[in-house]
Amino acid sequence: MEKQLKVMVPVDFMPVSFKALEFLGLLMDQMPIETHLVHVIQVNATDWAGSSESSETLDRAEMRAMEQTAEEQFAQLRQQVDFKFTQHVLHGGLTTSLANYANLQQVDLVIMGTEGADGWYEKISGSEAQHVVRYTDVPVITIHQNVGITPIHNILWVADFAYEKQPQRSISLIKVLQRIFGAKIHLLQILQKEDAHQELALRENMMRFANNLQLENYELHFHRDFKVPTGVRNFNQESEKNLVVIGTHARKGVNHLFYGSIAETLVNHCIRPLLTYHLK
């Protein structure tokens, strides 16, 4: 029997939250899960003094009303689901609150729904899920609101196969997901124009990657496209994988604005559930 997995699911009680719970149910059918459902009441961290009563700069009546609403929504949710969960109402910035909670509780995995973001808003602000991926150290599975959720028979893994340092904790989680579903891993290299004459070297990198991580039941794939996110999407449309996995360097600030993150772009636009993990 698999070891119990501690999973955090941020909930705002909107339909997109229930997409995350749907995926959670898929995992629960295969292994024991300790579930933490977390709702964040967003306030300026400098205004929050630990409770509504002691936070003098906030509207206390409004805060109590939001807390009461959250408790009622959790109570309703308990009547709708067939699993036990621990509930928490946090106060502060969304990303910081979730990241701190995940670290404090030593969460193994975060699952969250996302509506995505587009255009200039995506470049400057991004979606809430993007921010959580960027600042949370544990693996995050994001589920776009329009994604269909199916049993995980095929895992598509997009990686920097030349990058030597893969985080053991994240790799172990990916292997657990493969094992409990009996899935095949598909390692995908997107070939851009400048990669045209490097296919042999890239294949050697992929084989070394698989051997170093002691992967089993896997295949190698190449797909030609002008951008990695577009290539992943197009390959996925052709082959219908059930889960996409990708590492992220978690760039922040100005560096992120100019260089971006392929993983975070996929968070907003991936047509399958997406597991992201930090490369360190």
Structure notes:
This protein has 280 residues and is α/β, with parallel strands linked by helices. It has two domains: 120 residues, Rossmann fold (3-Layer(aba) Sandwich); 125 residues, 3-Layer(aba) Sandwich (Rossmann fold), CATH 3.40.50. It has ten helices and ten strands. It has a ten-stranded mixed β-sheet with strand order 3-2-1-4-5-10-9-6-7-8, sandwiched between helices.
How would you summarize what this structure contains?
The protein is an alpha/beta fold and 280 residues long.
N/C terminus separation: 30 Å
The secondary structure category is: alpha/beta
- Tell me, what's the shape? elongated
Beta strands, count: 10
Helix fraction, binned, reads 40-55%
CA radius of gyration: 20 Å
Contiguous runs where pLDDT drops below 50 for at least 5 residues: 117-126, 252-260
Q: What count of structural domains? A: 2
CATH superfamily membership of the largest domain: HUPs
Give the spatial strand order of the biggest sheet.
3-2-1-4-5-10-9-6-7-8
Q: What's the SSE pattern?
A: EHEHEHEHHEEHEHEHEHHE
Q: In the CATH hierarchy, what is the class of the largest domain?
A: Alpha Beta
Number of helical segments? 10
CATH-defined topology of the largest domain: Rossmann fold
Strand content: 15-25%
- Give the overall average pLDDT: 82
Largest beta-sheet characterization: 10 strands, mixed
Please identify, by name, the CATH architecture of the largest domain: 3-Layer(aba) Sandwich
Family: Belongs to the universal stress protein A family.
InterPro entries: Rossmann-like_a/b/a_fold (IPR014729), Universal_stress_UspA (IPR006015), UspA (IPR006016)
Pfam family, one: Usp
Protein name: Universal stress protein UspA
